[in-house]
Amino acid sequence: MEILVTLLTILAAAQGIRALEVPQNVRDFYERVKVGRCEGSDKLKGGYSDRSGQNEKAPIFLHGPNTFADTDIDCDGDLSDPGDGRCGSSEDTQGQTVFVDQVRKLSKNKIKDLNANIHPYVVFGNDREDGGPTFNPQKYGVKPLSVMAVVCGEKLIYGIWADTNGDDGPPVVGEASISLATACYGTEAINGNSGHDESDVLYVAFTGEDALPGPRTKWDAKDFKEFEDSIEEVGNRLIERLK
């Protein structure tokens, strides 16, 4: 296992991908909450086909029966830079994220929207007008563009909450920008129409103003690593809540 992890680290470095080691408290949290179900006051919303479990600082995470969520691919946002072209196979790309106005405000207009090829973001929450189940993380204290933690493929990735699921398909969860998914599973496994099918990915949102990216955030980063490095300090502080 140690050899495999080392090899993955080398490959990630060669591809310019940032991969953080999963701290022990996060591993313990992953194993503890994976078993069983969210029930009672811990269950915030149900009714989704693929895979949310409050004191004020409690994390909110996606959870199914003895499982977590998969990773579908999102390529929404600023499409002016197509990256390496892998988003070209996406069949439902939208030209903006749901929090585009907040992106411009928080970035002080350094960017017009997030770029899925650069910015690691999570699609979290469900907005529907067809009578299907909805979930609004803001109702529970999660701020738009706040830092989230994703545990995937034996790695810890920091991203931001930047989009929600609409009603253009069945009510589902488990979706992230192509840059985040690539950091998890590599370029060969991920493209605009191909993600990670196993429901073993833990997505964790954090409540409160202190979960927002700080003044050092490189909104105009040129690549994934530059942006994730700039939110790492906030992410490291937030994961201390996972106990």
Name a few traits of the molecule.
243 residues, alpha+beta, single chain, six-stranded mixed barrel
In brief, what are we looking at here?
The chain is α+β, with helices and mostly antiparallel strands and 243 residues long. It has helices at 2-14, 24-34, 100-106, 178-185, 224-238, and strands spanning 60-61, 69-74, 121-126, 147-152, 155-165, 175-177, 196-205.
Topology (SSEs and partners):
Layout lengths: L1 H13 L9 H11 L25 E2 L7 E6 L25 H7 L14 E6 L20 E6 L2 E11 L9 E3 H8 L10 E10 L18 H15 L5
Parallel strand pairs: 2-6, 3-5
Antiparallel strand pairs: 1-7, 2-7, 3-6, 4-5, 4-7
Polypeptide structure, described:
The structure is a single chain. By secondary structure, this protein is α+β, with helices and mostly antiparallel strands. It contains five helices and seven strands, in the order ααββαββββαβα. A six-stranded mixed barrel has the order 2-6-3-5-4-7. A hairpin with a 2-residue loop joins β4 and β5 (155-165). The longest helix is centred in the last third of the chain and has 15 residues, at 224-238. The protein is globular, with a radius of gyration of 17 Å. Mean pLDDT is 83; it is low at 1-16 and 40-55.
